[in-house]
C-alpha cells in the first residue's frame, strides 16, 4: 500500500510542543481512528491531500463549509476581488446590505439579518435576543444537542462555571411530552426553545424532526410569548433553500447560520423575524472581523448558486446513491450499517457495534483507500461530487467490509474511554 | 465643499429594512457625530473611501487590524496563495504549526498557542482555562475594561442573565489597594486576574500601566495559585514586539491576541505558559473557521514584518509628531486637547468638554476634511503612514480648531443620552 504518514508524524510532534495536546476542537484527530492525518496540504473540489500527499475523497467537507467544492473558482474570485477593493475596514461595505437582503429574500421566516464569524456567535446572539425580548432567562434545549462551544453550551464541562449553565432546562428531541415538561419547568421564566433542525448529535443515530414535535414547539412559544430558535449552522442549505424547518412547515423566530453559507469563507449569520427586531437592535454583540466585506462577497455568490441551481436535488440523489450502494455492499458481506438522517447529511455507523470498534476499523480502512469518512459525526455530500465519486467510495467501502469481516473480534478503541471521561456524563 | 453623502444615505435606508437599527456593534455610526459615513467602498494603504467616494486618512485602522496598510500586497498575496492551495479544510494545514511556533518565538511568556476568530474567543478561552486550571470560579476584572462582547463581558447588559456575570469582582485599573481588596473578596475562589495592557476604556482618559500595579497583580496570582491574563487583543504589537506588559517587566500566564496579528485577516489567538497547558488541552472550544489556513499564512507574513522591520519605532515617531502638532495647533486657537495613552495608540479628546459637544464638532469637521478621527475611542497609527500624512491631519485639525473656536457654545450631542441609557449605569 502506498499510503505513508511520515510528514504528518513529524508535524504532529512539532505541534505537540506549541499547541496544547497538539490540537484542539472539532478538527483534532484525537478521537478518530489511528493514522487519521492531522494536517492537510491541499484541498480542491471534492478532494483533500494530507501533508504526505495522500489524496482523499472528503465526506466531511471541512465539517460543513465545503458545499460547492473546495476552491470553487467563482466564489473564491468574488472573495479575492472584494479583498483587493476593501475587506476589514473601519466600517462595512455595501455588500453587507446586499447580503442581508439576499438572506432575508431566501429565508421565509426572516425579516432581518446580523452577521458574525462563528456559529457559536449566532447561537449566543439568539440566546441574548430571546432573553432581551422576553425579559426572562430560562431556555429549553434538547439534551445532547450541539449549539456551539461557548461556556453556556460547549459539550465538555471543563472550565465551565455553574452560572454559565443556570436557567437551562432540557428535553428529549422529538419527544413532545418531554418538551412540554421542560416548558412547564421553565414556568413563567421561559425565554426560548432551542432546536436543531434535525437531531444530528454525535455518536447516536440521527433523527428527522417529527412535524408534531416541531409544531408543538412553535405553539408553546406562541402561548408563552417565548422565541423559537432553530440552529441551522450545520444543516442550513444542506436540506432546503430555506430554513430547514420549512420542510415541516414551522417558522422559527430566530435561526442561526454558518458553514455552507460562504463555501468555506469565514462568516456566520443570525436571521430573525420582526417580532424580535428591537431586542436584536439593543443587545451588544460584535467582533473584529464581523463587518469584513470579502466573506460577504463570497456568501453572496454562494447564495446565488443555492438559489439558482439544482445543487440540492443533485446532492440528495448522490446521497441516496451512496446510501444504497453501501447497504448493498454491507449485505454482500453479511454486515449491516446504521445510516441515519437525510441521505445528503448522512451519519453512517456499523450496526451492532456498541464500542465503535467495527466503525473505527471500517473507516480507517476506507481512509487508507482514499475515502475520508467519520466514525461518529454526520458527514456531508458535496455538490461538486459526481456519481463516479460515489461509486469510488462504495468500492472502497466494499474492500473495507471484506477486511472487517475477515478481522474477527475487535478490541474497543481505547481513545473512546478517554472521551467518556472528558464528557463526564 | 465637495463632500457629499447621498449614496450613504440611500444605503443606510436599505440597511434599516434588513439589519436591526441599520447596523450593530462597534462599527455602527450610531454614536458618532452626524454625517459619519456608515458604508465604505474601498480601503488601500492608509486611506478609506466611503460609498460616495469621499477619501479619508484613517486613524481607526479598522478599529485595530490595519497595522501595515490596507491591502498590503505581500500579506494579501500570502493569503491568496494559501487560499488557492487550501483554506477551510477538514483539518489544519502545516501553516498552523508554523504560526504557533512563530507566536511562541516572539512572545516571551508563551509556551503554546491556540487560534480562534474573535478577540472574544481568546478572552473567553482564557477565562475557561483559568477556571479549569484552578478548579475555582471567581475572576477579578478592571471596572470598565473591554474584554469582548460575550454574555460574560459585553459592555451592555441587555440579554445578559445574572448567571453570566456570577463570580466576577471588580477593581480600579492601576489602583493596587482596589486590586488587593478585589482579590480579598474573591477569597479562596480566585481563578484569575484580568488586565488590559493599558487602560484603553472608551470615553475616559487612557492610562499606561503603573509597574507597581502590574507587579502586584503578578504577585497576587502567584500567592493564590491563580492565573494572570493580559488581554492584548487591541494593543498587541502596537506597543511592543512582545506582550505589551514586557514593557513593565511582568509576564502573564495567558494573553489574548487578535486585530493586528494578520493585518486585517480573520484570526485571533490565545497564548499561554506551560503551567496551564493541561488546562488548555482539556477545555472544549472550537469554531467552524478556527483552523482555516489562509489567515494563518497572512499572520505568518505579518509576524515576520513585526519581527524584522522598524515599524514600531516609525509608528511611535509618527504618533509623537501627531501629538505635538495637534497640541501646538490647539494652543494657537486658545484650545487644549487631552491626548492620553501611548502616542502610537492615541486617545484624543478636546479638553474641558464634559458633554463631548466640542469633540463631536471637531472630529466632524476633521472628517469632512478627509481625516477620520474618533471622538471617544482610542485610535491607531498605521505603519504605512508618512510624515506628510501626519502633517495633512494636523493641518485639517487646525482648520477644525478654527471653526470650533468660532462656533461658540454647543449643545450636548443628543445621541450620547441614548448611550447612557443603554449602558444602564
From TrEMBL, chains A, B:
<dbReference type="GO" id="GO:0030170">
    <property type="term" value="F:pyridoxal phosphate binding"/>
</dbReference>
<comment type="similarity">
    <text>Belongs to the class-III pyridoxal-phosphate-dependent aminotransferase family.</text>
</comment>
<dbReference type="InterPro" id="IPR005814">
    <property type="entry name" value="Aminotrans_3"/>
</dbReference>
<dbReference type="GO" id="GO:0008483">
    <property type="term" value="F:transaminase activity"/>
</dbReference>
<keyword id="KW-0663">Pyridoxal phosphate</keyword>
<keyword id="KW-0808">Transferase</keyword>
<keyword id="KW-0032">Aminotransferase</keyword>
<dbReference type="InterPro" id="IPR049704">
    <property type="entry name" value="Aminotrans_3_PPA_site"/>
</dbReference>
<dbReference type="Pfam" id="PF00202">
    <property type="entry name" value="Aminotran_3"/>
</dbReference>
<dbReference type="InterPro" id="IPR015421">
    <property type="entry name" value="PyrdxlP-dep_Trfase_major"/>
</dbReference>
<dbReference type="InterPro" id="IPR015424">
    <property type="entry name" value="PyrdxlP-dep_Trfase"/>
</dbReference>
<protein>
    <submittedName>
        <fullName>Glutamate-1-semialdehyde aminotransferase</fullName>
    </submittedName>
</protein>
<dbReference type="InterPro" id="IPR015422">
    <property type="entry name" value="PyrdxlP-dep_Trfase_small"/>
</dbReference>
